[in-house]
């Protein structure tokens, strides 16, 4: 039995609320169980120096957690004067994941920055950030197309992510914190809406896993991402 009482292939409740901020070109609050992430997409009519005069756009991301997103207060990284290694790793993951679903030539020479701020954490924050980040990106691109600034949709496929792992000897979908902290094996699966893999981060700690378990985890990830993409499409319809 999972701590939440869910079936092994059952996602936590998924909620995506759009239009939650006034100024951003695209914004949503994604809630996957008790993990809540605010995602905003900001458009700039410029690109990094290495892309100037290339005709290609750029999508990048930033990620952070509020001090009381967890059960004890964390010090703000700004107070420490630098970002932690985990933060840097996650925001790079978000950026390259979202870019995998973008035709940067069709986007044109402009940059969209997706900010993902964790309001409340209960496992799977990077997966929620990627999933919600795509929704914010979709809304920002919709505005560009409505204004006639671009004529071809640069978003080639939805991008979503889910965690899976081996908990209490069972392969399970969408780990919450209680499971993630005890799982012998856990992984993050980033995929497109058409089922193509973008990135798999999978590791064991205090345990090992078989190929059969790895394949079962992939099957669970397929199911979870399909549900997340359905929620993305419903939110942006």
UniProtKB/TrEMBL annotation:
<feature type="domain" description="Exoribonuclease phosphorolytic">
    <location>
        <begin position="157"/>
        <end position="223"/>
    </location>
</feature>
<keyword id="KW-0820">tRNA-binding</keyword>
<comment type="similarity">
    <text>Belongs to the RNase PH family.</text>
</comment>
<keyword id="KW-0808">Transferase</keyword>
<keyword id="KW-0548">Nucleotidyltransferase</keyword>
<keyword id="KW-0698">rRNA processing</keyword>
<dbReference type="GO" id="GO:0016075">
    <property type="term" value="P:rRNA catabolic process"/>
</dbReference>
<dbReference type="GO" id="GO:0000049">
    <property type="term" value="F:tRNA binding"/>
</dbReference>
<feature type="domain" description="Exoribonuclease phosphorolytic">
    <location>
        <begin position="10"/>
        <end position="140"/>
    </location>
</feature>
<dbReference type="GO" id="GO:0000175">
    <property type="term" value="F:3'-5'-RNA exonuclease activity"/>
</dbReference>
<dbReference type="InterPro" id="IPR020568">
    <property type="entry name" value="Ribosomal_Su5_D2-typ_SF"/>
</dbReference>
<dbReference type="InterPro" id="IPR015847">
    <property type="entry name" value="ExoRNase_PH_dom2"/>
</dbReference>
<dbReference type="InterPro" id="IPR036345">
    <property type="entry name" value="ExoRNase_PH_dom2_sf"/>
</dbReference>
<dbReference type="InterPro" id="IPR002381">
    <property type="entry name" value="RNase_PH_bac-type"/>
</dbReference>
<feature type="binding site">
    <location>
        <position position="86"/>
    </location>
    <ligand>
        <name>phosphate</name>
    </ligand>
</feature>
<dbReference type="InterPro" id="IPR001247">
    <property type="entry name" value="ExoRNase_PH_dom1"/>
</dbReference>
<dbReference type="InterPro" id="IPR050080">
    <property type="entry name" value="RNase_PH"/>
</dbReference>
<dbReference type="GO" id="GO:0009022">
    <property type="term" value="F:tRNA nucleotidyltransferase activity"/>
</dbReference>
<dbReference type="Pfam" id="PF01138">
    <property type="entry name" value="RNase_PH"/>
</dbReference>
<comment type="function">
    <text>Phosphorolytic 3'-5' exoribonuclease that plays an important role in tRNA 3'-end maturation. Removes nucleotide residues following the 3'-CCA terminus of tRNAs; can also add nucleotides to the ends of RNA molecules by using nucleoside diphosphates as substrates, but this may not be physiologically important. Probably plays a role in initiation of 16S rRNA degradation (leading to ribosome degradation) during starvation.</text>
</comment>
<keyword id="KW-0694">RNA-binding</keyword>
<feature type="binding site">
    <location>
        <begin position="124"/>
        <end position="126"/>
    </location>
    <ligand>
        <name>phosphate</name>
    </ligand>
</feature>
<dbReference type="InterPro" id="IPR027408">
    <property type="entry name" value="PNPase/RNase_PH_dom_sf"/>
</dbReference>
<dbReference type="InterPro" id="IPR018336">
    <property type="entry name" value="RNase_PH_CS"/>
</dbReference>
<dbReference type="GO" id="GO:0031125">
    <property type="term" value="P:rRNA 3'-end processing"/>
</dbReference>
<keyword id="KW-0819">tRNA processing</keyword>
<protein>
    <recommendedName>
        <fullName>Ribonuclease PH</fullName>
        <ecNumber>2.7.7.56</ecNumber>
    </recommendedName>
</protein>
<comment type="subunit">
    <text>Homohexameric ring arranged as a trimer of dimers.</text>
</comment>
<dbReference type="GO" id="GO:0008033">
    <property type="term" value="P:tRNA processing"/>
</dbReference>
<dbReference type="Pfam" id="PF03725">
    <property type="entry name" value="RNase_PH_C"/>
</dbReference>
